[in-house]
Design goal:
The protein is of the alpha/beta class. The chain contains 13 helices and 15 strands.
Length: 406
């Protein structure tokens, strides 16, 4: 069968992930375009409040991406030169890069063989065997594919070994851990969500940090906007200006930190507010599609996703592993799916195997579970508007390519 075109208007690939934009989303953005504010206005604050309320956190700080949010969260927790950040090798590079941005050193913790998340048991073992000067100041726990790491166990370790925790929940908005919404920060300092188009809901681009600590909120708010404050209660004055801000006009502001331009616009926030109304429906639909996949593929030589009993997964991704008896190599299956117009993907190439991280001494064999997982993993299409016909096409293609269990 000829390879099908990705070009709009031709036969479309079934992507691995896809946003849904409804008329209500369009109306919300257009309404904001007609308002006095298209940036730094009330919609951004409304979005922050609604996300925080949805996940049971006290505060939300929005950003133009989850990467920006990770960067500022790490800085807010005091990460800097000479410190260590630990995370998982099974994630997008941003989960580790945020440490490099801060001038810190990065190390990784092996993944759990069933959830593919950072393995809390391996974390404990590594903490015990690591010299004090190399222990992490910050741990980034990534909730891979939509389900939470074992945060209660990780939180207990953080108290013993004195590190801060960022939950990278870019995949997990709408999921829960031990019946608590992911993002409530009961077992972490800050949680990060992503609103990229393939995520659970979208702002087109965007991210948010949720937390229960007002000090982190203030620091992140300043960092995302050039390190500047206009709040008179925070003014320190300047010998160059000659007087403290409370004696100046309403124009007065102070740059107190070296910050960035990481703000989310009103347009992106308006889209996010509209999308947030469908969050529960989206996650429910993803879980329904997963049940269909699981039932239809259970007799094939594939390892299907495992969800820990304490988790309700948001199922951002549906990842299967090819078993030794699958009868087809991953490269061949990937090509066959592409041929059939199915946009499969692989999540993720282990971060420590990226050429950039070779500069820090990482090499093949350092994290064997993550590397083995990567060799066999393939991500299948999963998004709320995936039709029954499209899903059946994915299922039929797999059933035609992969051996059945004996």
């Amino acid at each position: 069968m000829a390879k099908q075109s990705r070009i709009f208007g031709a036969t479309q690939m079934i992507p691995y992930g896809k946003q849904e934009i409804t008329q209500s989303d369009i109306d919300a953005v257009v309404e904001t375009l007609k308002s006095p504010f298209i940036t730094q206005g009330p919609k951004t604050q409304e979005f922050e409040q609604k996300v925080a309320q949805k996940v049971g956190a006290e505060f939300g700080v929005s950003f133009n991406s989850a990467t920006s949010a990770l960067h500022c969260a790490a800085l807010a927790l005091g990460l800097g030169k000479g410190d260590w950040l630990w995370t998982t090798p099974n994630s997008f590079v941003a989960s580790a890069n945020c440490g490099i941005y801060c001038g810190a050193k990065v190390d990784f913790v092996e993944i759990h063989p069933r959830t593919y998340n950072l393995d809390a048991r391996k974390l404990e073992k590594k903490l015990k065997s690591t010299p004090k000067h190399k222990l992490p100041k910050v741990l980034v726990a990534v909730h891979f594919a939509g389900q939470s790491c074992d945060m209660k166990r990780i939180w207990k370790l953080s108290k013993k070994y004195h590190f801060k925790i960022i939950e990278d929940a870019s995949h997990a908005l709408g999921g829960s851990y031990r019946e608590l919404p992911i993002g409530c920060c009961k077992f972490s300092d800050i949680t990060i969500f992503s609103f990229h188009p393939v995520k659970i809901i979208t702002c087109a681009e965007g991210g948010i940090a949720t937390t229960n600590n007002p000090k982190y909120v203030r620091k992140m708010q300043m960092l995302r906007s050039h390190g500047i404050t206009k709040d008179s209660e925070d003014f320190v004055g300047s010998f160059m200006v000659g007087f403290k801000g409370d004696n100046a006009g309403a124009w007065y502001y102070e740059q107190q930190l070296l910050g960035f331009n990481y703000r989310l616009s009103e347009l992106h926030a308006a889209l996010g507010i509209s999308q947030l109304e469908r969050l529960e429906a989206y996650v429910a639909k993803r879980n329904e599609l997963v049940r269909t996949y699981n039932e239809s593929l259970k007799d094939l030589e594939l390892t299907l996703p495992f969800v820990a009993p304490y988790n309700y997964s948001a199922f951002h991704l549906y990842v299967v592993l090819l078993n030794k008896k699958s009868g087809i190599k991953r490269r061949e299956l990937f090509a066959k799916l592409q041929e059939e117009g199915i946009g499969a993907q692989v999540h993720y190439i282990p971060i420590h195997l990226q050429p950039f991280y070779a500069h820090f001494g990482f090499k093949k064999g350092d994290f064997k579970v993550a590397e083995s997982y990567y060799k066999h993993a393939i991500t299948l299409p999963l998004f709320p508007t995936l039709t029954a016909q499209e899903q059946q096409k994915v299922i039929d293609t797999l059933r035609n390519c992969v051996c059945k269990k004996a």
